[in-house]
Amino acid sequence: MATELHVTFRVGTADYAVPAAQVLHLESYDSATPVPGAPSYVAGLVQVRGRLVPVVDLRARFGLAPVPHSIDHRVVVCQVGTRVAGLLVDSARDVIRIEDGAFEKPPDLVEQQAGGFIKGIATVTKKMFLLVDVPRIIGEELSHG
Amino acid sequence: MASNTANGNGKRNGSTPAATLARSLRTSAGQAERVEALAAKIAQSGTQQAAAADAARASVEDIVASVEETATASEELARTNTTVAGNTRDVLQGLESTVAGLQEITASVAAVRKDTDSLALAADSTATSLEQLGRSTKSTAANAEELSETSARLTSAATETSASVASAALRGQETATMIEEVATTVEQMAVTSARLAGDSRLVGDRMVTVASGLKELGGSLEEVAADAAETATSVEQSSATAEELARSFRGVAELAQNLTSAATESASALSEVAASVEEVAATAEKNASVVESNASSIEQVARSAQVVAQSAQEVSNLASQNAAATAQLESSSRRIAGVVETARVTSERVAVSARASGQTVGRTIAGFAKIREAMGQGATVMKDMGKRAEEIGDIVQAINLIADRTNLLSLNASIEAARAGEHGRGFAVIAEEVRALADRAAAAATDVAKIVRSLQSVARDAVSANTDGLRLADEGAQLSEDARTGLQVILEGVDQLASSVKSISAATEEQVRGVQSVTAATARLETESRSIARASAEQTLATSSLARSGGEMRTMAKQTRDATLEQAKALRDMVKSNDQLTANIDKVSRATEEQATSAAQLARAVVQMRGAAQRTTTAMVAQLRTLTAMSTNVQEVSGSTQRTVTAIGENAKGAAEIAKAMDAARKQAMQAARAVTEQARAAKEIEATASDVARLSAEVTSASNEQAEALGLLATDADSVRKVAKQSSRAVGEQSDALSSLSSLAARQSAALQTITRSTNEQAAATDQIAQAMRALRGQSREMTGVLVGQAKSAAATAADVATVAQEIAALRAANGEQAAMVSAMAGTDEDHAGTEDPRT
Asked: Are residues A74 and B405, on separate chains, in Cβ contact within 8 Å?
């Protein structure tokens, strides 16, 4: 069966996964330059490898309370099509391979509550990972921006 | 009428019917005339009879009036007979009371004689006792003076002892005072309890007294009730006697003369006796006053002797207490010597160990200084260590950062490798390993950081502990310094103690000397006070017997005086009653009416008396019943009071036990202090006792002097008592003789009066018969009067009838005359004489 590499990260107490194919690279995070008029969940702009990338604060996006800055914070820089955006997460320390069929459709209740950001749920070595719908997160951001 | 007869005669010769009629008319006229004359005669005799009947009635009425008078007189006689009976009874009562008084006097004279004899005897024994008392008093005075000297010596010795004890007493006084205060409080409590118990007992006693008083009242009421019953009985008897008396007072008149003479005789004899008794009464009065003064002075002597005996006993007791206190003093002195020795040894030991302690304390102070230095070094090391630990923390943080970055790089490498596909597979493996290494480095750094953090906290604790240790070391050094100062003070105190012990030793020796002299003085005092107490006891015995005989004498004198006064009173009464008797006897003959009235009054009074006596008896019985109930109540109250007293007594006992316990606590107080306090107290007691002894000795001396004076007075009084007793004896003998003659006179009088009583009773009976006969007579007279009145009435009626007849006859005659005239007129033609012969109608 075919496997695909996924970058895993943590926001709050849950573990999330994103396909490595959609990730350009990971960056450490110090601060972002705020963008006037941007939605509240947009932390601001950061400069990564010579280009400006908008950063979406997943805590704010998922409706969680903000936490103080830590050395473990990461920005997962993703590319969907030509659009590039960073996801600010609490930590991201691993990449794992997940079988293609491991993901299941999340229950209706979870899907509705999550606002359509979660595409599936996979369990790897007894650990549960929520598969994030990056285009949706970024796209909505972009449509607003 | 004569004419009528003539008319009848005129017709007699007529030949015609008219002539015949005229004749017959003349005849009837003559008859009528005769009838008229007869009727007039009859009327006259009837009137005479009525007058005679009236006269008879008047005379009978006179008789009735006289009979009434007689009856009244006889009734009055009966009344006066009763009065006489009353008077006679009065006389007899007077005589009986006289006889009873005489008997009483005789008995009391005999008692007086006996008392007088006893009085003489008592006076003799009193004189003897007085002599004994005088001797005993002299010896007491001598003893008292000796006692005074001894007590003076004792006082000086006691003062000496007290002074020597005072210096020692000051040291233990404070503790002793406190314990003393507590003990005093408890003792006060005990005393208060005891007093409460005493008061309650007094209350109980009073209740008992009330109960006994009630009982006595009940007894006296019973007596009164008995007396009332007796009175009722005697009233009955009096009533019987009065009735008896009423039967025989006929011979009053004859025997009155005898009685008068006898009464006069007895009056003179009584006067004589009364005079003699008055004399005796005066003598007895004198006697009583002398005996009274005698008895009071004897009692004074007895009191004073008792006081002396009491004082002597007190002195003896105090001497015994003194001896005990001295013995106690001696033992406590010995104990003090022991205690002082122990104190000396202990103080030396204390000095040695105090010095050793001083050296040890010096070493301790040096050790503390070293500890402080080491502590300071340790603190420096600890601070350095903390600094190094912080540096290590910084390094660990750097390692952590590096590991983080390495992880980030390896992740990016993995992503790149994945994007490179098959070509990046080897690179991906390397990136994986790098990431694993970075993670291990991060974990190790985390462990190091944890260790460094704990090391830092331990270092901080060590520093603070070191600071505390430093402070404690400083404090220890300070304390050691204080200990050194304290030891110095202890050493000084031990030195002072040694010198105090030496001074106490010296004082104790002085005490022992003083105590020895006190012991000797006390022994002398005890011996002398004992001999005084013995002598005083003998004196008291003698004065007691003297007082007893004095009391007996007083009682006898009082009895004699009372008896004599009673005699005099009885005799006065007798004289009075005798006078009355004489007067009564004089009155007997002319006051028969009064006698009767008195008898009636007596009977009524007796009945009233009897009723009153019965009512009194009933009331007394009711009173007695109420009193018995009251007595029961009072006894119940008394019982409950007794129980209360018992409870309070138990309280007092409990308080006393508490006091005892406090005493035991006091005994457990510090030995030395207590011994000293005891000594002080003993010294004080000895001093107080000595002053008491001196005071009592003075009292004994003064009492002895008083006794001597009283004895002089007593001797004089005893002589006068003897004289008075002899006089009394003589007077009583005279009285006895006079009374015997008086008794015989009274007996004679009584006999005479008995005869009078009998006669009076007979008189009364006769008077009653007379009254009865008079009453019968009066009845008969009244009957006779009634008969006579009837007679007079019938006679008057007869006279009236006869008068009526006469009138009718007169009318008849007139008619007859008219008829004759008419006939004559008719016959006139025939006869010439007709008109002439009819003169009137």
From this structure: no
CATH 3.40.50.300 fits A3-126+135-144, yes or no: no
A26 → chain B, closest CA residue: B412
Interface test with A, best of B415, B419, B440 (most A CBs within 10 A): B415
Q: Contact, B735 vs B273, CB < 8 A?
A: yes
Q: What is the pLDDT of residues B501-539, one digit of tens each?
A: 777 777 777 777 777 777 777 777 778 777 777 877 777
Decide if B353 is inside a domain: yes
- Closest-CA distance of chain A to residue B444, Å: 17
Using a CB–CB cutoff of 8 Å, tell me whether A97 touches chain B: no
In a domain, B473, yes or no: yes
Q: What is the CATH number of the domain that holds B457?
A: 1.10.287.950
SS3 content of chain B, % helix, strand, coil (to 5): 95, 0, 5
Which chain A residues are within 8 Å of B435, Cβ to Cβ?
94
Chain B contact for A7 (CB, 8 A cutoff): yes
Selected residue of B411, B432, B439 to mutate for chain A interface (largest A Cβ count, 10 A):
B411
Cα(B96)–Cα(B747) distance, rounded to whole angstroms?
A: 9
* H and E: helices and strands count for chain B: 7, 0
Residue type, B403: A
In chain B, residues with a C-beta closer than 8 Å to the C-beta of A26 are 408, 411-412, 415
Q: How many domains does chain B have?
A: 1
Q: Which distant-in-sequence residues (6+ apart) come within 8 Å of B578 by Cβ? A: B94, B98, B263, B266, B267, B270
The confidence score (pLDDT) of residue B245 equals 44
Q: What is the domain range of residue B436? A: 348-509
Residue linked to tokens 């006066």: B80
DSSP B282-319: HHHHHHHHHHHHHHHHHHHHHHHHHHHHHHHHHHHHHH
Q: What is the pLDDT of residues B347-370, one digit of tens each?
A: 778 778 878 887 888 888 888 888
Q: Please name the member of B400, B404, B411 whose beta carbon is closest to the beta carbon of A95.
A: B411
Q: Is residue B490 part of a domain?
A: yes
What is the SS3 assignment for B732-782?
Answer: HHHHHHHHHHHHHHHHHHHHHHHHHHHHHHHHHHHHHHHHHHHHHHHHHHH
Q: Is residue B131 part of a domain?
A: no
Q: Does A30 touch chain B (CB under 8 A)?
A: no
Other Cβ atoms less than 10 A from the Cβ of A54: the count is 20
- Residues sharing a CB contact under 8 Å with residue B670, sequence separation 6 or more, in sequence order: B172, B175
Find, among A124, A128, A13, the residue nearest to A62 by Cα.
A13
C-alpha B298/C-alpha B286 separation (Å) is: 18
Where do the domains of chain A lie? 3-126+135-144
A90 touches chain B (CB under 8 A): no
Name chain A contacts of B439, Cβ cutoff 8 Å.
93
Among B401, B405, B407, beta carbon nearest to A93: B407
**Low-confidence winner among A85-94, B121-130, B530-539, B673-682 (lowest mean pLDDT):** B673-682
Strands A51-57 and A91-99: unpaired
**Inter-residue contact B552 to B119 (CB < 8 Å):** no
Q: How buried is A140 (Cβ within 10 angstroms: 0-12 exposed, 13-18 middle, 19+ buried)?
A: middle
